[in-house]
Amino acid sequence: MQKLKNKTALITGGTSGIGKATAIDFIENGASVIITGRFKNTVDDTVIELGSNAKGIVSDAGKMEDILSLADKVKLISPQVDILYVNAGFGKYAPLELIDETHFNEQFNVIVKGTLFMVQQILPLMKEGGSIILNTSIVTEVGMPNSSVYSAAKAAVQSFTKSFASELAPRKIRINAVSPGPINTNYFDRSNLSSDQVQAMADAVMPQVPLARFGEPSEVAKAVTFLASADSSFMHGTELFVDGGFPRIK
Predict the structure, then answer these.
(1) How, if at all, do strands 83-86 and 131-135 pair?
(2) Rounded mean pLDDT of the chain?
(3) How far is Cα of residue 224 from the mean position of the Cα atoms in its chain?
(4) Who wins on pLDDT, 138 or 163?
(5) Whole-model pTM?
(6) Which of 18, 24, 59, 96 could crosslink 66 through cysteines, CB 3.0-4.6 Å?
């Protein structure tokens, strides 16, 4: 059964990782998908890989001019968006003593400002019965060293999930969040960590995952598809954890 048949979905940050995996799963479930990415070559390559039910738009989730022009670009492809998955984001890490304004602004521009204004701008294209999914993170549930800014930004998105849900309920547009834990993606490509630091973080996290492995992007994608579909029709303003039990189960 195709859960998203005849639906049009917009996925930000859809050229890799969880975003790309979700685009694949959406298409397998009958949706037409529009992905965004920062670079034309990766957008074009991903659209070719995804096939005829995918279209792409070059757009940077951290640039207001791109966000403000995105709805017009989407309308050239589809007059309506049924599903919005605000996936674009990244994390950088620094101890409290070394955090500067650039470190703060980079993450808040994409994760907080980008999420808020992306929802605002695409909302006019969404009709009754639409579904919006935001990305939170397991970092909101645990104090992780060197992640003050990233954790705060994701906590803001967690708050958006509740407040947006309250506002959008009268319009019959559902909004929920998916909260990934440790997932095998290229997430660290935009981070400021060296390969040795990434490996050290992975080594520290792995023993805390009760399922004793990292998750795959496709596993998060299936949760996003669930939240996008009628299977979750009575879920609104909630957060779905896909984390292998980390760090809430001992």
Answers:
(1) parallel
(2) 91
(3) 9
(4) 163
(5) 0.92
(6) 59
Q: What are the structural domains of the chain? A: 8-242 (3.40.50.720)
H-assigned helices in 29-100: 40-50, 64-75
* Closest of 10, 25, 150, 163 to residue 73, by C-alpha: 10
Place of tokens 């795959």: 216
- CB distance 236 to 175 below 8 Å: yes
Task: Say if CB 22 and CB 87 are below 8 A apart.
Answer: yes
Residue 210 makes CB contacts below 8 A (sequence gap 6+) with: 244, 245, 246, 249, 250
Mean pLDDT for the stretch of residues 167-194: 81
Of 77-91, 137-151, 168-182, 227-241, least confident by mean pLDDT is 137-151
85, 93, 150, 187: which is the annotated catalytic residue?
A: 150
Place of tokens 């909101």: 140
Active site residue 150: yes
Question: Cβ distance 8 to 30 under 8 Å?
Answer: no
DSSP of 37-57, one letter per residue?
ES-HHHHHHHHHHH-TTEEEE
Report the C-alpha gap between 47 and 218 in whole angstroms.
18
Angle between helix 64-75 and helix 114-122 axes, rounded to 10 deg:
30
Report how far residue 199's alpha carbon sits from residue 230's, in angstroms, rounded to the nearest whole number.
39
Closest among 87, 32, 29, 7 to 222, alpha carbons compared: 29
pLDDT for res 141: 84
